[in-house]
Amino acid sequence: MSECGFIGLGRMGGAMARRLLDAGHRVSVYDPAPTATAALAAQGAEVAISARAVADAAPVVFLSLPNPQIVAEVVLGAQGIREGTSLKVCVDLSTSGPETAVRLAAGLAERHIASLEAPVSGGIKGAREGTLSLMAGSSFMQG
Length: 143
Fold this sequence. Notes:
alpha/beta; two-stranded antiparallel sheet; 6 helices; 39% helix
């Protein structure tokens, strides 16, 4: 089992996943572009065959995806991560907006999975250097 999973390995997501690997974490990764996973596999990431497979392998899954529609499909779709057997916490690092955050939280709560909305600021340079700022919000943070 991986310590965490990462879905969406573009310029931001790939850099963030690489930092997790550099810190010694076991990371399961997925991106529909095989070239995005190759460099991380060479660094020791476990490459999953689907987003759902990441959620089968890891209790915490980070998302860095290009738009709210893709985030919703990856999380709530027929083969979405909410169906994963290990997932306990989903952390959306994308800029998905409040409507998507509420929708994801409700869909994940049905499966007793916590949802954390945590868009990042700092750009690609910040992702590479580990200096990103996160703005986090979640219903489970309300006490």
